Amino acid sequence: MMTSAFEGKHGIQWTAQNQLDDLDFADDLALLSHTHEHMHTKTASVAVVSASVGLSIHNGKTKVLKYNTEKSNPITLETVEDVESFTYLGSIIDEQESSAADEKARIGKATTAFLQLQIIWNSKQLSNNINVKIFNTNVKTVSSTVRR
C-alpha cells in the first residue's frame, strides 16, 4: 500500500547520510514529514490509494503529533486529533523528542512483571538457577529495550 501511495523520497532526514522512511506494520502506519504541506499531500495520497482497494482511513484512530510547529491547519478534510504522545508498536512517541516516557513505561512493566511473580521468588521448591531463567524470560524481556 505504501509503495503505491508514494514515489521518490517520502520520509525525513534522520542523519546527514540517512533518511527515516514512513513506518508501516500490518494495519498501522506512521507518516513522517518535515513540512505540514508534505504531510497533507502524503495523507491525501494514502486516502486515494486506500479508497481504490475499498479501504479508508479511520479518523477516530488517526492522530497527529507535531514537533516544533505552530501550524494548526488540519491535515485532512475531517478533524484529526492532535496529541502530545502516542504508542506505536509498544513504544511511546512524544513531542519532547526523548525516550524518557518510553523508558519509564518499560521499567513500570518490568516492575509489574517482577511483582506478579512474587510467589515464585518466595518459593523454597525452586532453585536459584530456575528463578534466574524465569526472571530472564518474564522480566528482562519486558525491559530489554530500555537504554541507559
Automatic annotation (TrEMBL):
Pfam families: DUF6451 (PF20049)
Domain of life: Eukaryota
Full protein name: Uncharacterized protein
Source organism per UniProt: Schistosoma margrebowiei
Lineage, highest ranks first: Eukaryota, Metazoa, Spiralia, Lophotrochozoa, Platyhelminthes
